[in-house]
Write a structure and sequence with these properties.
Blueprint lengths: L1 E7 L2 E14 H5 L9 H8 L8 E13 L2 E5 L9 H6 L5 H7 L9 E3 L5 H4 L3 E4 L2 E4 L5 E3 L2 H9 L3 H17 L2 E2 L5 E4 L2 E5 L8 E7 L2 E5 L23 H17 L3 E3 L8 E7 L2 E6 L3
Parallel strand pairs: 4-5, 5-8, 8-9, 13-14
Antiparallel strand pairs: 1-2, 2-3, 3-4, 6-7, 10-11, 11-12, 12-13, 14-15, 15-16
């Protein structure tokens, strides 16, 4: 349910924890029998909120942005129990229930930002009907970079084929998909920026409210350790070097400009500020 709230003048941001679960370490970092895997023990010791001996403590968040005249959803979570991520985790996300608790109906959402085309960010984008899958948010414009669509179309993976049919094609058929490759404003003050590496089309979203800035970082970050070791490995990065380049540049900007970071996965703060403790960057929740 709602995990955190930030009010910036006339704009309200609600962080929604869609689902929690666990990923085996080999699924996160790849092979664990190579020399680099020795660092996992130190990760477990330093970040017990994030790692256990068996896996990564996975959190998956979405963000609801309510501005005058516009309601925006940033990312669409892991989805129902029969979605790709739901089947993997053996758990159902709660985004629709959380939106209902916030008195936001599907038809109230004007814009949906899909930071990238991974299963834990698109799960509630559509819903099944007797006539096939349709957009869950019937009045919304959906924003997704075309490079991620192209990557799905080129893939022979079963989940990719399924998600292309159940997510992308319904959005195209309804005329609700904005697949512009250019950086652009979703609403005044909320701009999408291409930040590839994790996926070819990965984006971040930067909100500016009278000089107060919030970066919705998508999967620019997964762990606290990546705030300091920007080249920290992740099995899911399509282009690790490019991902690290964008991670470094954006984190430096977040710190220099005292932005708020809205993180899909990093604990303990869904909405927080980068702070340095003994020279190490950490994310501190608002109010702490």
């Amino acid at each position: 349910m709602p995990e955190g709230v930030l009010q910036l003048r006339e704009v309200r941001i609600d962080a929604i924890l869609d689902v929690e679960g666990s990923f085996p370490l080999e699924d996160v970092f790849g092979r664990t029998d190579d020399p680099a895997a020795e660092s996992l023990e130190s990760l477990m010791d330093r970040f017990p909120e994030e790692f256990t001996a068996d896996g990564w403590r996975f959190r998956d968040r979405c963000f609801l942005v309510r501005a005058p005249g516009a309601t925006v959803l940033v990312d669409a979570g892991s989805g129902p129990a029969d979605s790709s991520m739901g089947l993997y985790l053996g758990a159902r996300g709660i985004l629709p229930d959380a939106l209902g608790a916030l008195e936001v109906a599907p038809g109230d959402v004007d814009q949906v930002v899909l930071t990238h085309m991974h299963s834990d960010h698109i799960g509630w984008a559509t819903l099944p009907t007797p006539g096939g899958f349709v957009p869950r948010f019937p009045n919304a414009r959906y924003h997704l970079h075309p490079a991620d669509i192209d990557a799905k179309r080129a893939s022979h993976d079963e989940d990719d084929i399924r998600e292309l049919a159940e997510i992308i094609e319904p959005l195209i058929a309804s005329g609700q998909l904005d697949a512009s490759p250019d950086d652009h404003d979703v609403i005044p003050g909320l701009r999408l920026h291409h930040a590839p590496g994790h996926t070819p089309g990965h984006r971040v979203a930067l909100l500016d409210v009278h000089g107060e800035r919030v970066l919705f970082c998508g999967d620019l970050l997964h762990f606290t350790s990546q705030m300091n070791d920007v080249a920290g490995r992740l099995h899911g990065d399509r282009d690790p070097a490019t991902a690290a380049e964008h991670r470094a540049a954006w984190l430096d900007r977040v710190e220099a400009e005292a932005m708020t970071l809205a993180s899909a996965h990093v604990p303990p703060a869904a909405l927080g500020r980068l702070v340095r403790e003994d020279g190490v960057r950490r994310l501190r929740a608002w109010g702490d």
